[in-house]
Automatic annotation (TrEMBL):
It comes from Gossypium hirsutum (Upland cotton). It comes from the Eukaryota. One of its GO terms (biological process) is chloroplast fission. Residues 256-390 form the Biogenesis factor required for ATP synthase 1-like C-terminal domain. Coiled coil: none annotated. This is DUF3598 domain-containing protein. InterPro entries: BFA1-like_C, BFA1-like_DUF3598, Calycin.
Amino acid sequence: MASICYSCIVFPSPSPKPFPFLPKLPHSNPFPSFRTSRLRAANSAPVQEQHYMSIDNLRQFFDLNSGKWTGSFHQFDGNGNLLQKISTRLSASCYGEDELISLIQTLYIEQPQSSTSISGHDEEAEWAEYKIKETNMFTVDKYQQIGFFPNERAFSLRYQTAGMLETVLRQGVLGEDDTGEESPKNVKLPSCQPSIVCENCLYSQAKDRRARAFHIMDPKGFVDMLLIFLEDRGDGPLVHPSLGNIIDGEDRILPFLGKWEGHSVTKRSGVYGSTMTEADTVSYLEMDDKKKLIQDVTSMDSRRGVRTNVHWTGMISNNSVEFEGAYQLTLLPGGMYMGYPSDIAKSVAESKSFHLEFCWLDAPGKRQRLVRTYDAEGLAVSSTYFSEVKL
């Protein structure tokens, strides 16, 4: 993208202290939209070439998502307690060519069995169908602000509303939209107007399985709920570790304790997805007998010769970890956790950037992390992918 001058962009105020598990990233800053890039491409051969590469990136993204997926949907509250689990199927395919290529997805949600079913008779499962809004070059850049890592098979998406998720929950739990009934006990629907809905998706390195994690924030900037789709490619039955409330928070943190080494890649949001920086990382996490956590992170950007050290302390209570600096982790079963600021509205009011994180330990001693960085206006400006091994 030689003709697009990122160095001319005004940088925002310095970012706050980096959050735990996250090496210091470059300052988040706005960038030209795809539409602006297309206009500049008309008079620039290098940009025109890059434009075609962006189409290729989008096709790779579609290829990664296409096919049939069988899995389960898990809904957690902010404390990591499982509220409900629903079986799901997803069918995704693309059509069109070049700039007109689009991805269409249909989600099928298993319906609860009727309370009037005959005892001893196995009632055939019913599935509700939901058409997800098409994804194309315009929506990916304008609305979803994609952060895509084709080699690592990972991506982040930002949504403006949780309408789809609310419909999914209503179909899966209530059976119909707007029944006028109260929500079943222990089932909470997302806010109708959340401030942020962020999807982070990581693919297993060992099998054709993926985990899609959703941060659902309410209009005041607090976590409304956390959602996990765990899916296998194919239309067969899904066999996966239970994500129920089997172990408590202290046990959930155990797989993450110790020394981790790895590599991180940070990319700008958007279909161009240019790499901003790469770094080697070393992370230590220890817990004493009083459940106090000590976190030390060192990152080294050898290309720029920049070394960063971050020290954090925090406390664990049940399934939650609260670090100084008002950043929290919710520990989930299945070797997962999700990180977020304690109060996003406060970060925005203070003109500070903030981060949302999803971590998945999908194999013993190996984990992947995806961190989504937002600017003070709530725009997703970059994504960082981590691949780490435990020593």
